[in-house]
Amino acid sequence: MNDADSTSPAYSMDDLVALCKRCGFVFPASEIYGGINGFWDFGPRGVALKNNLRDAWWRDMVECPPIGPDGEPLSIVGLDSAIIQNPKVWEASGHIGGFNDPMVDCTESKKRYRADQIRVLISWDVEADSGDDSHPAIQRLYAFIEDDESSYKSAIKKTTKYAKAIGVSVVDNPEHWSFSHPEFADARQYIVGPDVETPGTLTEPRMFNLMFETYIGAIRDEDNKSYLRPETAQGIFTNYKNVLDTMRVKLPFGIAQVGKSFRNEVTPRNFIFRSREFEQMEMEWFCPPDQSQVWYEFWVEQRTNWWKSVGLTGDNLIRRDHDADELAHYSTACADVEYRYPFTSPGYGELEGIAHRGCFDLDAHQKASKTKLEYFDQDLQVKLQKEGVDKEEIKQRSKYMPHVIEPAAGLTRGVLALLCEAYTPDPERPSGVVMKFNPAMAPIKAGIFPLVNKDGMPEVAQKLYQELRTKYACQYDGKQSIGKRYARMDEAGAPYSFTIDGDTLTDQTVTVRDRDTASQERIALDQVSTFLADRID
RNA sequence: GCGGGUGUAACUCAAUGGUAGAGUGUCAGCCUUCCAAGCUGAAUGUUAGGGGUUCGAGUCCCCUCACCCGCUCCA
Tell me, what's the pLDDT at A193? Predict the structure, then answer.
């Protein structure tokens, strides 16, 4: 029965949030003014952790990219596009849709309607009006789309059929009200959407645009309106041609970008998991359409392993392939790398999504911008020529729109996952908790302590500290007792502590205290730097 | 967005409607030869914010904000 315990976290989110504040990882934004919903600030330790994760991604993606399935190193270049772009970018990408209109979603058919176009038949019971209280209650109200003859007829038909089934007679020419009518606020559970048979699948009307608006220049009018980007990906698509024209890249290749994105979430929740300002690490992998499935599999595998490499080694990390009905209409495949956060446990929450986007984005931007974004595949041309393929066919086949595989990771969510994974309650320890970060991710790599502040120990410890700090984030601490200093390192997640004691002065050795086991070993003073390098770099 | 809960020092919590406190932590000093030891001293409060009732409000009432839980939502 204790197996169930392995899926439920040994700590609460409150505990983690408290530690994050206490140890300078994450603070509520604008806290002295009462905070602001959906925004968080990274403290000194938090920004160190975030930068370490970001730098690892950049290194493993751009500087030292993986080896491809064919044994060749991949070609991926970096990019840093502006947060604010021409609003036409967001029109083309589909982010400005149902712009000023409240929208209604159907949770079953996945269709989205303009709320003001949805009408609901009001077909009252003739018997009930005559004062007979024994009639069955009408629990089906059929909706249709305004000015859509077929959906209106369908709704009438369904209403009549339903009325017959429950044995009431309804008026022949019912009137109809807008779905947004206040009368329906409590009756939504009875309303049947235009394209489904079961009631209660329509959400309440809501403004759908999640983008933050801003105005360019001093004049606040519609002409100057723009948006903070809701994803970094579009900046990559809009620069695809620039990169192609200048960087001597050939398909397949990738463009990678890390940066802030903004979404005006209805309900920010769960600490930094869903915040209105967050950071993404996205890469768009452009490839020939016929290779796209191979690359998709490659990247799903690659990205799952990468998260393991930064410390998410336990069974809290899973790959989850989307079902067909979960996919966006342009996407043929999508998988998430998910993590079991305390607030999702025993379920999982998204960490990264790897989507097969086809040529949806480039097509959309080509059409909207009237800029040719097709790729001329010279290698293919040569190959086809050698095969003796017809000239016209070569011309046609060697020019095509690349397909795109998009591994889109949440940096902010990654930091949260690292924090969750590291958080290890330990009642045996004075600190009560140890942050077991992967050494490469740890905000502080080492503590350097004199055992006591006399007999020359502080001088030796200072010298060691001065040496180490040229390469690593480390801390010198000579205050209070040695136990307290170790406890501080446990909470901060520093993997190693080096202590200069009496023996150091005679035999030039120091003790290394391991954060995870609290055990100690002695190593030579002049080997400390190498010791760290072996375990961190 | 809806419903419920919470909000006092950095943290954990006290304080009949009557002078805002303790422990921990932090800082300084002493002491200290390996896991938050001890001693001495110090700093830190718009009681989440605003309004009201009252001679007097941390406490009662109203509004706002933030966070948590459950729905809703999640390009």
Answer: 80
